[in-house]
Amino acid sequence: MQLFLAFIIAASTILKDVQCLPVKIDAETKFIVLQNEGMEPTVLDCDYNLNDTDSFLTVKWFRNDKTIYQWIRGSHPAPIPEFKSDVDSSYESSTDPNKQYSSLALINPSIDSTGDYKCVVQTRTETITVHKSVQVIDVRNYTLNMYRYQIQNETQLECTVSNVFPKPTITITSEDDDIVKVVANEPQENEDGYFNATTFAAIQDDDEDTDAHKCVVTFEGYSQNLTTILTSGSCKSCTDYRILFLSCLVYYLFSNFKILD
Fold it and tell me: What is the pTM of this model?
């Protein structure tokens, strides 16, 4: 018992001068939708309140644990050279001298701007950490197509999207609930960091009524999507590649035997 009490006293002596470090996590992801021109800076605020306002104060911003910006109270911000074109270091977030340049103003965003951001505020007696999350959406040069095929006795739909960021999810829906099977391939990342994806669906199409099928491309956590609709009647309008192949073969043979002019 005496040994246990001695341990508690020793531990209390060691820890009495150690402060818990406040950590704030912003659960809401900030989305940046890339545009071709005229984009306003995206501002990430560092929300903190200081008890120690008299001593040294520094604010550092990190992206994926790599320093991209820092400010020392009483001086102008010092952007990290590697990220000089990514940050507007002249942006003033407050008239309060303790927060004047504390925010991070992102400019010229790209898909590389996606990441986990961290603001670390330090004085001689305090350390405050604030986490932010940024997700870039780039669909400026995307293509989205939907096709309908007749393969033997099965009608298939194919939806493809290309050149999007981040990784997409493709969903094919039907007004008539005639989808019987869906195969979604894993999106593939190209050399530029953008994604291409394809999803197939087999449908039960036993009538000649007009059918409408929708392909929807979504991105996790983002409310907007890409959509295309394919409307068709009976499979008389579908493409049967066996017939197409035979037609081409017959044309080729007739041409070589000079049966056709």
Answer: 0.75
